[in-house]
């Protein structure tokens, strides 16, 4: 549980850990420290242990080093505090792999977020075979595998050749109190604006919103376009933000505001709350934090139909779908919402109600505990990995 917990797996696990602790469970979280040294603190009933730093390059070395760091810390915790009932981790980097290999006395679950092979494939890069093998082996050694979308999970376990009987569907959720209690602070962009929030990669699709921007500008020349997320570089060295700026006329590109990685939780929620329309243009996605957060902030969301969004969005009721290959369709929907604030407000209210009904951290914790109990009571954690 990093200190920021702004988005992605970090934010979702922060909310899950807090919800588990609130329901009476003892929770210990291992996570990385942005600087050298060890930090141990108690927050909201969750014991946070942050330790170490590791180089992000090369990827294989970073994964291996992280696995050793986690194993060493786990050994110290066992010596000091006794056993854990269950170990849960995302598949990312196969962090608990050494624990699973050396200690088979504790059941484990792996929660599928976005494995290395899938992430690289979506960004049109060749996956690293050994990193994929580490994540597959880590998942294969787990008692159960949890995933928010069954379709998403099936694609992953089929790639890893893991039996379907090990997969459980457990929707992810967001802590609404963390959303509602966020402070309202000044924004670096004036109203009205259309918001894209997420890492600036081609797989997430900021270029899709850019392609629709000219048609939106023609009907709503006052509207700006905010891009909130860490910029990335393409194979030729150009950044994604540079690429999309040169893809539109100058009178449109001057309306683009690139905010970079948003380090402030209050600012991120403020950006959600005040967006006229939010756009998600992923190639594929599960129950992403940005989607959950924007819906929780009662925003009208226009998104691509992915494994995660089809679980949450009913087209025309609590959000809208559009074809990623059809920017004209995206601009038409956005223009309709910009021209009818009452409609946008109604869509946003229904989006919030959807989150309240089934996509909160409380719902996620309740379902997670059910599967943890299954993993603990059933001897599934003694199986041998599939070859």
Overview of the molecule:
It is a single chain. With 387 residues, the protein is of the alpha/beta class. The chain folds into two domains: 8-174 and 362-382, Rossmann fold (3-Layer(aba) Sandwich); 177-359, 3-Layer(aba) Sandwich (Rossmann fold). Helices cover 45% and strands 15% of the residues. The chain has helices spanning 8-22, 59-81, 97-102, 116-122, 129-140, 150-160, 176-180, 206-219, 240-246, 250-253, 265-274, 289-296, 309-312, 327-339, 341-358, 361-377; strands spanning 27-32, 38-43, 46-51, 87-90, 108-111, 144-147, 167-169, 193-197, 224-228, 256-260, 277-280, 301-303, 320-321. The strands form three sheets. Strands 10-9-8-11-12-13 form a six-stranded parallel sheet, with helices on both faces. The protein has a four-stranded parallel sheet with strand order 4-5-6-7, with helices on both faces. Strands 1-3-2 form a three-stranded mixed sheet, with helices on both faces. Helix 8 links the parallel strand 8 (193-197) and strand 9 (224-228). Helix 1 crosses helix 16, helix 8 (206-219) runs parallel beside helix 9 and helix 8 packs across helix 14 (327-339). The chain is globular, with a radius of gyration of 21 Å.
